[in-house]
Amino acid sequence: MIEKQHIIDRFISYVTVDTESDPTSENTPSTAKQWDLANKLADELKQIGMQEVTIDENAYIMATLPSNVGYEVPVIGFVSHFDTSPDFTGANVKPQIIENYNGKDIILNKEKDIVLSPDYFEDLLLYKGKTLITTDGTTLLGADDKAGITEIVSAMEYLINHPEIKHGKIRIGFTPDEEIGRGAHKFDVKKFGADWAYTMDGSQIGELEYENFNAAGAVVTVKGKIVHPGYAKGKMINSMYIATDYINSLPRLETPEHTEDREGFFHLYTIKGSVDETKLQYIIRDHDKIHFEARKEMMQKLADELNEQFEMEVVTVEIKDQYFNMREKIEPVMHIVKIAKKAMEQAGIQSIIKPIRGGTDGSQLSFMGLPCPNIFAGGHNFHGRYEYVPVESMQKATEVIVNIAKLVALPETSFKEEE
Ligand SMILES: [Zn+2]
């Protein structure tokens, strides 16, 4: 349907603009360079014929494709982010195109001996015979999430060029700063005005997600007592030993490296210690709300026990919720997942429904009143030099968007929960 070269050209025009976000900045967008692509996108949307194209003071872009049917159809939305991860540089991206991939090692960079190999990244073998876009080994690619933007813009352009395809009103939204967890923060859900939306921000072709972690961060502070080591008997309290006890009291196998699927964890990611004070930083993750609450309680209880043992407050725990599992917001409107699944079937794609072991902007948007499952954008190995995207996956994602638009506008599509 959508011409391959057209997708490639559009994608490359986006990834060659550096839009790395910065978690240390308080501004939105967190980096001024994100404006470069934001302005370009707003222009392009006007140029392909989108209506009500707006770009606000924080670089959030919204646009409308008006309905072309004479009856009431729910307003749907599609959302992506244009920033790239600060984990790896996104400056001077030099995409390479591998046509008719042969299933063997891909030399990303001969000089630096950087190889993208199916021995290590087995997913590559799914794409034998396809056209892959890779990096030159020195930057990330930015398919996360410029593939999503490519697909949304291409689908809107296709619908504009094919007025015979019936659809309701469609809103699209492009955000800055998703990679630093702030993509949804300043998203004006009311102005967007959709009944529901989809983020095009998943990975492998077929992915469809409406469950993510409940997430919290915890800082454990242990206070010691510093005394001259030569005269410390019965006086010194070494905070590092108490911190070690604390660490070892949490279930050792409930960590990221020992868990998968719907198993939650405690993740200790920083220790900073001296005799006088030790700080531990954790993240807590669990799909199940009850287990999530229990994990937070356990962290507090361990502190209470140590304080009792020392008969003073040596350990304090500060826990902050970060985001929640969108499942509870999606389940009452399950038809929006079924429509996406059906749209994939129509494109010949087997949907892969699985819980996300992380968060998405869609989870935040769902709690802000815009139910928002996540659909594949097609890329793999995000946030690093081995990132790649098969062009055919971007074509299919574009087709899925068009199919969703069609399905929602079918008079016989029921928007009530059947079961
Ligand atoms: Zn993303």
From TrEMBL:
InterPro entries: ArgE/DapE_CS, Bact_exopeptidase_dim_dom, Peptidase_M20, Peptidase_M20_dimer, Peptidase_M20B. The keyword Lyase does not apply. GO terms for molecular function: tripeptide aminopeptidase activity. Its cofactor is Zn(2+). The keyword Transmembrane helix does not apply. Binds 2 Zn(2+) ions per subunit. PROSITE patterns: ARGE_DAPE_CPG2_1, ARGE_DAPE_CPG2_2. Keywords: Aminopeptidase, Cytoplasm, Hydrolase, Metal-binding, Metalloprotease, Protease, Zinc. Its EC number is 3.4.11.4. Zn(2+) 1 binds at H81, D144, D201. Belongs to the peptidase M20B family. Cleaves the N-terminal amino acid of tripeptides. This is Peptidase T. The lineage of its organism: Bacteria, Pseudomonadati, Bacteroidota, Flavobacteriia, Flavobacteriales.
